[in-house]
């Protein structure tokens, strides 16, 4: 327990000393919020913009924040130093998730407050459910980022893979364009994207005043993803850049993708 | 496996795919000694040490560190040993004291952080970021991290590699201090002078095999067993036939006839006779040098190559 607390404490200090963490968690979402609020505020409810910016922030925090940082620490031989200490990978992964959450939550609350006080957005009926969904989203996507970190061999590879996941999730999950307006193929793809469950969850809470319980399919999808991704990330964790990815690792990655494939197929076939 | 031999290695092998990196080596490290693994890059030193530290699985053989098997009890071993790895870093924005506090929290037994900062002359830098430290200071911090759990055995993998001469000297002094505290230390190096200066015993490793083991003196004696006596005179040595001095094997005079070099198996005896002979020739001595064979000479004799080729 001492190791977990120490790692979380130092990770938080390091995060807030890092300008890019401040930029991508605070300035970047705020910039997008103001731009989209000005551009779309008259066309869509401001809560739609808030949901969009929250998804954008959560994806960035998870994929770039957790994923790229872990790759960077491995490339710089920092993880190698931890390897000689009597700890497993689990405290490192847990501290990465907690740090991401602590770094993101003030930003989320700031955006909600600006939306409320500046743009007259009414707070959702289930505010705790909203904060719960944001928290679940942050740690889920950080666990995905940590899997990406485990399977790529360099920062360059990591950047490419993250962009390949980030862009479709941004544009096809409904975060930026409503899924209903996407072409048929886009609508099918959206069913398989983890971010779609986050978008659906935010819609339910913001626009239909649902609670987390009423939003159980999204919560279940994200919780399953979080559980599987965290487990897989601990199995695939690589301390050194020289460590090769095991063949079994590829099967673990397929395992991590399984819930989205199953849920996507279910949604396609269950759709009216 | 007794506490007087905290590290025991028997028939250790390690293959990377089809490549045998370590080919069945045996050695022991006794309590309180500094044992060196000396060899060129790629000889298998780091692989051996990393197996002992519980960082890599072995292919075959028996290994014991503090009576524990690194393949099965790596967490317990890591808790009780200190490791200074080659090529490691800390996050740029981590402060010196924070690093010590963090790594202390991983161990069940720790030593005082303030005491370590003093001992390693890092007190002034305790609030400095890692990125602000010099190469020598970073290495001193790595030593501090290795000592944070008051380890029973210390593994130092190429501790001075890549450091400037001043920083290297600082690290040598640090190792000598640890040696005076009777710590058991296993260090790897490809610097001959480091092994000769710091190690009580040395194993010369090449191509995954130990080719010589013992104290530096023993290794030198066993292989070449010859020293050079070099005499420099003020005036030229007369052109007469040189006598056969006691224990001398080969004699050579320089072109200006002012230097005499003699290969000897018992240099002290030979030297006494040469000095007498020089005196009989009425020549004044300018300089006398006795040169023992270095571990580099031993390595060249055993492998036909230079250590850092």
Name the overall outline of chain B: elongated
Number of helices of chain B: 10
**CA-to-CA gap between the ends of chain A?**
49 Å
Strand % of chain B is 25-35%
SSE-based structural type of chain B: alpha/beta
Q: Please, how many domains of chain A?
A: 1
User: Largest interface by residue count?
Assistant: A-B, 21 and 23 residues
Tell me which oligomeric state these chains represent: heterodimer
| Spatial extent as radius of gyration of chain A | 18 Å
Say how many strands of chain A there are. 0
Give me the CATH fold name of the largest domain in chain B.
Rossmann fold
Number of domains of chain B: 2
What level of helicity do the residues of chain A show? Answer: over 70%
Distance between the termini of chain B: 38 Å
**Helix coverage percent of residues of chain B?**
25-40%
- Rg of chain B is 24 Å
Shape of chain A: globular
* SSE string of chain A, helices as H and strands as E: HHHHHHHHHHH
Description:
The complex is a heterodimer of chains A (272) and B (309). Chain A contains eleven helices and no strands. In chain A, α1 (2-16) packs across α5, α3 (46-75) runs antiparallel to α9 (194-207) and α9 (194-207) packs antiparallel against α10. Chain A has helices at residues 2-16, 19-40, 46-75, 78-83, 90-117, 127-151, 155-172, 184-191, 194-207, 216-236, 247-270. The mean pLDDT of chain A is 87. Helix content of chain A is 78%, strand content 0%. Chain A has 272 residues and is mostly helical. Chain B has two domains: 7-215, P-loop containing nucleotide triphosphate hydrolases (Rossmann fold); 226-292, Alpha-Beta Plaits. The radius of gyration of chain B is 24 Å and the shape is elongated. The longest helix of chain B has 16 residues, at 165-180. In chain B, α5 (135-147) runs parallel beside α6. With 309 residues, chain B is an alpha/beta fold. In chain B, 32% of the residues lie in helices and 28% in strands. A six-stranded mixed β-sheet of chain B has the order 5-6-7-3-8-9, with helices on both faces. A four-stranded antiparallel β-sheet of chain B has the order 11-12-10-13, covered by helices on one side. Chains A and B meet through α1 and α4 of A and α2 and α3 of B.
């Amino acid at each position: 327990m001492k190791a977990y607390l120490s790692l979380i404490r130092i990770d938080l200090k390091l995060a807030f000393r890092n300008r890019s963490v401040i930029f991508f968690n605070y300035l970047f979402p705020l910039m997008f919020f103001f731009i989209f609020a000005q551009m779309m505020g008259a066309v869509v409810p401001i809560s739609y913009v808030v949901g969009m910016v929250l998804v954008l922030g959560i994806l960035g925090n998870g994929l770039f924040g957790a994923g790229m940082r872990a790759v960077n620490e491995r490339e710089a031989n920092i993880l190698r130093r931890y390897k000689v200490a009597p700890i497993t990978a689990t405290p490192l992964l847990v501290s990465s998730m907690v740090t991401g959450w602590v770094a993101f939550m003030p930003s989320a609350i700031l955006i909600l407050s600006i939306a409320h006080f500046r743009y007259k957005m009414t707070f959702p009926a289930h505010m705790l459910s909203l904060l719960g969904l944001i928290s679940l989203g942050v740690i889920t996507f950080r666990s995905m980022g940590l899997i990406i970190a485990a399977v790529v061999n360099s920062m360059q590879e990591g950047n490419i893979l993250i962009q390949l996941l980030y862009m479709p999730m941004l544009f096809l999950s409904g975060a930026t364009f409503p899924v209903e307006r996407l072409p048929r193929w886009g609508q099918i793809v959206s069913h398989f994207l983890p971010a779609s469950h986050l978008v659906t969850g935010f819609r339910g809470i913001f626009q239909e005043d649902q609670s987390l319980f009423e939003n159980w399919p999204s919560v279940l999808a994200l919780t399953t993803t979080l559980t599987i991704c965290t487990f897989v990330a601990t199995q695939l964790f690589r301390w050194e850049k020289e460590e090769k990815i095991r063949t079994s690792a590829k099967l673990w990655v397929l395992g991590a993708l399984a819930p989205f494939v199953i849920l996507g197929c279910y949604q396609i076939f269950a759709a009216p | 496996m007794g506490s007087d031999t905290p590290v025991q290695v028997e028939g250790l092998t390690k293959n990377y795919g089809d490549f045998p990196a370590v080919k069945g080596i045996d050695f022991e490290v006794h309590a309180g000694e500094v044992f060196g693994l000396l060899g060129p890059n790629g000889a298998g030193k780091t692989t051996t040490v990393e197996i002992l530290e519980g960082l890599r699985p072995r292919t075959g053989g028996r290994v014991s560190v503090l009576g524990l098997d690194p393949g099965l009890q790596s967490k317990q071993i890591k808790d009780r040993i200190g490791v200074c790895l080659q090529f490691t870093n800390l996050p740029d924005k981590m402060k010196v004291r924070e690093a010590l506090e963090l790594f202390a929290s991983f161990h069940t037994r720790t030593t005082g952080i303030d005491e370590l900062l003093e001992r390693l002359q890092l007190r002034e830098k305790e609030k400095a970021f890692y990125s602000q430290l010099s190469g020598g200071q970073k290495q001193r911090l790595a030593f501090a991290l290795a000592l944070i759990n008051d380890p029973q055995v210390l593994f130092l993998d190429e501790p001075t590699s890549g450091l400037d001469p001043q920083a290297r000297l600082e690290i040598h002094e640090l190792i000598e201090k640890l040696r005076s505290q009777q710590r058991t230390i296993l260090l790897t190096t490809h610097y001959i002078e480091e092994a000769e200066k710091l190690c009580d015993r040395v194993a010369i490793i090449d191509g995954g095999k130990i080719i010589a083991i013992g104290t530096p003196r023993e290794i030198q004696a066993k292989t070449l067993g010859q020293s050079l006596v070099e005499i420099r005179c003020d005036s030229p040595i007369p052109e007469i036939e040189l006598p056969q001095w006691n224990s001398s094997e080969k004699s050579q005079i320089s072109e200006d006839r002012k230097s005499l070099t003699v290969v000897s198996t018992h240099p002290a005896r030979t030297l006494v006779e040469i000095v007498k002979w020089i005196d009989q020739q009425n020549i004044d001595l300018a300089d006398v040098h006795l040169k023992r064979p270095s571990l580099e000479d031993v390595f060249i004799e055993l492998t036909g190559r230079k250590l850092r080729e």
